[in-house]
Amino acid sequence: MHKPLIGAHVSISGHLHLAVERALSIGATTMQIFTKSNRSWFDKPLDLEEVSVFKKAVKAADLRGIMVHSSYLINIGAKEESTEKNSVKSLTLELERAEALDIPFLVLHPGSHTGAGTESCLKKIAHNLDIVLKKASGNTMILIETMAGQGTNVGSTFEEIKQILELTKNNHLLGVCFDTCHIFSAGYDISTDDGYDEVFKQFDKIIGLKHLKAFHLNDSKTEFNSHKDRHEELGKGNIPMTFFKRLMNDQRFAVVPKVLETPTDPDMELYKRELKLLRSLID
Ligand code: FE
Ligand code: FE
Ligand code: ZN
Questions:
Q1: pTM, 2 dp
Q2: How many angstroms does the Cα of residue 1 sit away from the middle of ligand 1?
Q3: For position 1, what pLDDT does the model report?
Q4: What are the residues facing 215 on neighbouring strands?
């Protein structure tokens, strides 16, 4: 039997390859990282030495299904032209960095319309994804993250995500990242057994389960359908552990990487405990 791919978002502080050590220290088999500051548009290019040390460390650690989370500043659906331009440039750079590091997935918040309306925002996102993906020179996929629906963020319904996937011509390198906190906050009730079946049935019908390439495993501090994005430690929020138990045993997602983005401490003891807990849920 293959090892389940579970891990967490870990820091690259000090050096990129230190993320690999951090992932191993919590017993992870996959991880998510930023490859640059998550609050900056651009960064100096990665140097070759850095890239090769990172790749060697990943190989030695046998981490698979790694994902990069792109900068929080990026909004390729932005109403304002300068923001849109910077976002396209920044996302292109993020993709190049992930490709250079041989990382298979780049997670992206689809965007927000800031008053311009959902429809035009979705079109703009698809248009800009085409621009970015046209320059793709590797196998790294951009994964659209399911959103909680805060403010004017788009991508909190399966229909909106489907529209982005369909409007993008270059979509063979596009997939979806399912964030459990966001899904629950967006109004998809995964808290019951029937709800579990129904939500994934809907996902399959509207988007297609084959496009689901990664999970963010977070509990939700806020109640169902709150449209708020507040992550909580597994078991401490409003998503019951029965959900995570089913997910960990769902053979459809056996090889899909799953990472925690829950609040943790500097020593990541909380992550360690959560990963242990997740592993204990597997039958
Ligand atoms: Fe995210
Ligand atoms: Fe997330
Ligand atoms: Zn979130």
A1: 0.97
A2: 30
A3: 54
A4: 178, 258
Annotated active-site residue 80? The verdict is no
Return the number of other C-beta atoms located less than 10 Å from residue 219's C-beta: 25
Which ligand is in closest contact with the Cα of 107? 1
Where are the domains positioned within the chain? 6-280
Nearest to 143 by CA among 20, 257, 262, 263: 257
Is 216 considered catalytic here? yes
pLDDT of residue 259: 98
Name the CATH topology of 6-280. TIM Barrel (3.20.20)
Mean pLDDT of 202-222: 98
Ligand 3 (ion): residues with CB under 5 Å are 229
Cβ atoms within 10 A of the Cβ of 197, count?
12
- How high is the pLDDT of residue 3? 86
Ligand nearest to the CA of 229: 3
Measured in Å, residue 216 CA sits from the centre of ligand 1 at: 8
Residue type present at position 156: S
CA of 259 to the centre of ligand 2 (A): 9
List 216, 233, 271, 274, catalytic entry: 216
Of 187, 188, 162, 160, nearest to 175 (Cα)?
A: 162
